Amino acid sequence: MAYAVCDDEEVCRVAVTMHDVAVQAGVSIKTVSNVVNGYPHIRPETRRRVQEAIDDLGYRLNTTARNLRTRRTDMITLAVPELSLPYFAELADRVIRVAEEQGLTVLIEQTGGSRDREVEVLTGKRRQLTDGLIFSPLELSQADLDLFDVDFPLVVLGERVFDAPAHHVTMNNVAAARAATVHLASLGRRRIAVIGAHEGEELGSAALRTEGYKQGLAEAGLPFDPALVGEAGLWHRSTGSETMGRMLDDGVDVDAVFALNDAMALGALHALHARSLDVPGDVALIGFDDIDDVRYSVPTISSVDPGSAQIAKVAVDLLVERLTAPADHGYRRVVPASRVVGRESTGDVAEGAPERVVAELDGGVEQISSAALGRTA
Amino acid sequence: MAYAVCDDEEVCRVAVTMHDVAVQAGVSIKTVSNVVNGYPHIRPETRRRVQEAIDDLGYRLNTTARNLRTRRTDMITLAVPELSLPYFAELADRVIRVAEEQGLTVLIEQTGGSRDREVEVLTGKRRQLTDGLIFSPLELSQADLDLFDVDFPLVVLGERVFDAPAHHVTMNNVAAARAATVHLASLGRRRIAVIGAHEGEELGSAALRTEGYKQGLAEAGLPFDPALVGEAGLWHRSTGSETMGRMLDDGVDVDAVFALNDAMALGALHALHARSLDVPGDVALIGFDDIDDVRYSVPTISSVDPGSAQIAKVAVDLLVERLTAPADHGYRRVVPASRVVGRESTGDVAEGAPERVVAELDGGVEQISSAALGRTA
DNA sequence: GCCAATGGTTACAACGATGTAGAGTGAATC
DNA sequence: GATTCACTCTACATCGTTGTAACCATTGGC
CB 3.0 to 4.6 Å from B363: which of A182, A219, A264, B336, for a disulfide? Predict the structure, then answer.
């Protein structure tokens, strides 16, 4: 793309520079720089003159030049699959706010569930636009671990990749999923379906939460029935609806559903409703993520709050730590505390009543040395 | 924020520069630059040597340096109120995708409904990080028109500010709201409430859509009843729920609701459900924006699709036009075609059936000269 | 009354790329 | 055989900052 050329000197006077300010104020360029950057040792009189010149000329610091000189941009990247998934939209919202408080600007990359784009986030052109990266991979996995051995500050989110040489913010997936499942069982449900499983996967939210589901069944003394496992690659409303619908249309006997994320729970609710099944009367429903939607759906949907607010905060904090401190403390894995929140879809609250916390799980911080990786806290 | 200093020459070798590549390849820096930038007149042999050196050294072009030199960043800003509002999350998603196709990177600014932050978007430090701005203001209004007289490429979205010296992408607000209201009336509804009005406002989505609502009532021969107008400042699920709830608790007789956006429609649905009112049995409901949510809610919610996909595409295209061409074509106001989409919440489709378009409205393009501003097309 | 420490300021050289102008080639043109 | 032109490449200045080192006052300590 070629931009237009401007030839009117008067109109297109590119920009006021420090040089212009310096001349006007009768000082050196560096003094202007010092004023702009809040260097303390400046005579008040000088400062005033410079400030006046700045205001007069409408001078604005050229960020690009500063970035070049200082080798920093004060920007960080947040790479997520898709903003149209509410969980990631909320995450992005939070990360932007937290980063802002630290004086950082956030650049968002959408990887759209494409492996190539995820690789590009780690290695591509845009990488160097920012000082660091908060990365929530979806396609990359443990097999790509070496890709994560990068030379810039990196914080990994999610459960696709463990033990990368980077800080990691993750969730209590197995335990929380187990708690959610046990909760459904405690309501007397016996045929608990799971939606969003990924056959054959060993890591990743799907695998871990499915594992928690199985543990939950075991704990409740319920048998595991493969017919109750609904596969869904992408975790959208649409796939949740389709998977749920397929299962119901296949005549599978179901009295509860654990959707591995809330978007699918919303889709499943839709599919149940389309088949005139009552929630929670006929089928109890619980999701995962605790996005804002589930507080307003009809009925409201119970969910696992994995500590989303914490995740954003911690991710930024860890990245800032890497940005400011040498990489000397090894790496940490942080797991926020999570909760199972009961709402109408599990009959935990009366219609129209607010939510109720039905289970709580501690979080923790684990120091990762390159060798053994025992869970602490 | 001060970053860590690195003193290990070996490890922290800052970066390979064109100079290093040039030396290795035995050519001048400029030739390396030419190769990198695809300049055609280079001997194949030279190109090969340079490319080899690039690969050998793992050279990466320094974007910041290039930006400084070329005075461009190939980035654009998208400023929206909040990403956690699904409409804006979807908009951001689309804008990012479209921009990408044009080789542009998008920086998202959240203004969070704060006037100061909106002013900052137009004038603040970050402004110059990008080549242009797509701005969806919420607080700034016609009174701030002079703020929009800026010297960078700008595309304005929404209905807060008209006639700014910039391209404008907006919606068929009045006509679409009118159509939505008329549609509710055509279903036999007589007590049609509106949710999300802004008392005293003359421009803005709220005012325009409320105006359309009134016109719709008039067209249907229904009286306007102030008791049926629900105020709601921010258009969130929560405010929609509260406003709807208040109206019902006040005993207002309602048999249909026009929520001025879908988030509030979802909230209203929640409030109706909490009071055991059936949708559409007792109350018909229609929203505005046609976000993905309303296709999966229970029941599915009818809505006005203002041409969201188009909006993103057109906004980017118009900005690119300003980026590449001199500002010589005056300004245009583009209004995508919009539709009223009927779903379960208005009884337009049977339970479980997909959607049905119940009204269509043409869009159009209007050339804005600085003088008169008559609507064309 | 000399020396050190501090305060206030400046000159100069980077940061890593690209635009411009022009120097060499060699082939085509007259 | 001189002139033109297209191709290939280079030298140098420049984009607008900030880091470094050094300079010239003052000030205070002894």
Answer: B336
